[in-house]
Amino acid sequence: MFTSGEFSAMAETWAMSGIGLISLSENLVDLIWADRPDVPSEPVRVHPVEFSGESVADKLEKIRRELKLRRMDAHVVTMLDAIAWLYNVRGSDVEYNPVVIAYAIVTMDSAMLFVHGEKVGESLRSHLAGQVNINEYEAFADALGELADGGGRILLDSGSASQWVTEQLEGNCSVEMGTSPITLLKAVKNEVELEGFKKAHVRDGVAMVRFLNWLEKAVPAGGVTEISAADKLAGFRAENEHFTGLSFETISSYGPHGAIIHYGPTPETDVELKPDGIYLVDSGGQYLDGTTDITRTVTLGNPTKKQKELFTRVLKGHIDLGMCRFPVGTVGKQLDTIARLPLWEVGLNYGHGTGHGVGSYLNVHEGPHAISYYRCIGVPFMPGMVTSNEPGFYLAGEFGIRIENLVYVVQDETAPDKELPFNRFENLTVCPIDTRLVEQSLLTDAELDYLNRYHRFVFDSLSPLLSGDDLEWLRKATKKL
Length: 481
Known about the structure:
This protein is an alpha+beta fold.
């Protein structure tokens, strides 16, 4: 239930009050959870190289090379997305996240997967044959005991390995806590993964345009609620090729609900959207070739001067971060300030990070990188990393504003000094930004040019895939300012 680090911190804190922590062999929650659902039994799915871009053998070679550099003899992997990435598998065990409940162990000459037997089909056996030994999930504890008895240095990820795993390794071995090498390898996407991201975002953009066009016409007619709008958007996404589900619960928030950063409508809180005020929708999809996450804030009526000014300041931060160039070695905490400055200039701020990493048909939130001054993460941004760019502003009791695109890092070939290399961002998300909320006088020439170029990119990417009323809506929504 607790990572080794969390357990140690609690033990140290409570020891000062004379309280000791004792590990139990049984999970107390399991003992009292009478109606606990069965373990999901959907088969493990093979994620082919045409989407992953790299074979299991190549990934294992990289992991073993890193273990050798660190003078480790084995790595126990407990992060579900890390296991899915390493073995090129996906599953349906966790809602919104295409992962499998499993464990893995990698040594210098073997690799093991521990998973419930009913999930193992012939396709998985064939996929891993000769590379990975498949074991029953319950055999993991014994395997840890054998590792412990065998001695050597065992690497555990300090941010995810549980105290239970650590205790099972007590014996002749030396347990070393650190960052799993999988974390960074997974974060830096290869060319195939990036190409998949681009294709997935074009399809996702088609769904978003169809939804926003529908929303603009349906709200004045009445009967559209936060929940029904979210369901409609999910329906548009479901029509896309390679779609497997949503990447998280849709944040469909109207008016004051938009000021609740992680609002999720329920039957008790659901309200009807009226042809007035602001609507914020934060949503995403899981596709075989990529994961999407997008937020758009739109006006449903005639925006006020205050709404336009605040929206434009959020937009300025979004654009400024999107078009910035930064030297190699820059970390997220340094980039975060860029997105906040237009709000800071008038004494305003927002209470969340500006960006998070995103997996390749994996978890919509992944590390190790992030754009946030709330979290001191020393991992620099490097080419191939995907992150969100999502500044916002929230006025309690009135409305919320957030503009979110996914972007990826590329080397800036235009940097004048080749001895001092720079990076920059490229957009993945393909969807218009509501220019009805833009106070153009607040934008610099460079910001306005960026917005117009982005909308040209959106139109060129989506127009071949749209027709009729949807195409006309797109043409209007991307019109040059």
